[in-house]
Specification:
This protein has 368 residues and is of the alpha/beta class. It is 39% helix and 20% strand.
């Protein structure tokens, strides 16, 4: 995607330095800082501390993390026990996003087929970069399959702006290119459809107001930042035509884990007869489970993410304390939206209903 006219991704392999590089998303939109990842510890820190975030991007980072484990200082070459240990450490970095486990395991499995050290390094990098490119292509396809949804609403409104509400950041910063929830929006805009996006601020880390708004603005898309609790009001007053969100893990029966607050948007959409779509690549499905509320682990993060708010003051990024210093806080990072509240899934293979029958019909090769 373009940032001030320059092609940019949130993660890439720099061939000159042979180093994995990322955008430090903690500092956006006020500072654009590039970080090198040279050890598994640095990869784990980047994932845990949200230098990188978003399911597809976490998967791509984990995949490249396996390569890094083989070339980092003091690596153990062809020691399989060491490789498994490093892969398990990578997968433990965050518990909810399915893509992380998928990306790490995919590269590990390829590496274990090779005997020599040089062959393992080459296989790891090749496979990891394939993961990166496949996720970019999958997001592009999500945009193509989601386009008709927005086109139809535009036709019904005689070309007036299609108002789309999204939650958290499911754009290219969360993926590699295009995004998941934003992919149909970018595709519609690039096809000259008038779109306007309601951008939830997405507390506690404000990925919507910091990241989604920054992305959309750089692409020239009309958008408005709103409080997380404003969505229901807008829906009641006919100001939202469709809701599109991403997901960090989705069961094969259609339950959706996404950034905390998604469930409430789904309830409001259902009450106001507004379509609620979830956009995701197949790498985000957890094919082994059907009950999202029972079986998807919900990450609980540092309460200080709630207690403090980060922003720009006098040209300097600062954090300020909001509640009383002694007040405890609970920081559940995700919630689960039951399949019954989801209108459909937008995937790289097309659109399907949020039922196990329809999902598995679209992905028959994923049957357990």
């Amino acid at each position: 995607m373009k940032v001030d006219g320059k092609d940019m991704r949130p993660i890439w392999f720099d061939t000159a330095s042979k180093t994995v590089q990322i955008i430090d998303q903690r500092l956006l939109p006020h500072e654009l800082i590039i970080k090198d990842l040279t050890s598994v510890d640095e990869v784990i820190g980047a994932i845990k501390d949200m230098y990188v975030r978003g399911a597809p991007l976490i998967g791509a980072t984990g995949a490249l993390g396996v390569y890094i484990s083989l070339v980092q200082k003091n690596n153990r070459g062809t020691d399989n026990e060491y490789l498994e240990l490093e892969c398990n450490r990578l997968k433990d970095a965050r518990p909810t996003a399915m893509n992380l486990f998928w990306g790490v395991d995919r590269v590990r499995d390829v590496v274990l087929k090779e005997v020599s050290y040089d062959a393992r390094v080459k296989a790891a990098l090749t496979q990891a970069l394939e993961v990166v490119e496949e996720e970019a292509v999958n997001c592009q396809k999500i945009g193509e399959y989601g386009l008709p949804i927005i086109e139809e609403i535009s036709r019904q409104k005689n070309g007036k702006a299609v108002n789309i509400l999204t939650h958290c950041n499911a754009g290219w910063l969360a993926c590699v290119e295009y995004g998941t929830a934003t992919a149909p929006i970018y595709t519609a805009f690039d096809n000259h459809i008038d779109v306007h996006v309601w951008v939830d601020e997405t507390r506690p880390l404000n990925q919507g107001s910091r990241l989604t708004a920054w992305e959309l603005g750089k692409h020239g898309i009309d958008h408005t930042v709103i409080t997380d609790n404003a969505g229901g009001h807008l829906m009641q007053h006919g100001m939202v035509d469709v809701v599109i969100v991403g997901t960090d893990r989705t069961t094969r029966a259609g339950d959706v884990a996404n950034k905390i607050g998604t469930y409430l948007k789904a309830l409001a959409a259902r009450d106001n007869n507004i379509p609620f779509y979830v956009a995701l690549p197949s790498s985000t499905f957890d094919w082994s489970i059907t009950d999202g509320i029972k079986d998807i682990p919900i990450e609980e993060r540092d309460p200080d993410e709630i207690r403090y708010v980060q922003g720009l003051l006098n040209d300097k990024i600062q954090s300020v304390l909001v509640p009383p210093e002694t007040s405890p806080a609970a920081n559940h990072a995700f919630d689960v939206t039951p399949a019954r509240l989801v209108t459909g899934f937008i995937t790289e293979r097309g659109i399907c209903k949020a039922t196990q029958e329809d999902i598995m019909a679209l992905f028959p090769d994923k049957k357990i």
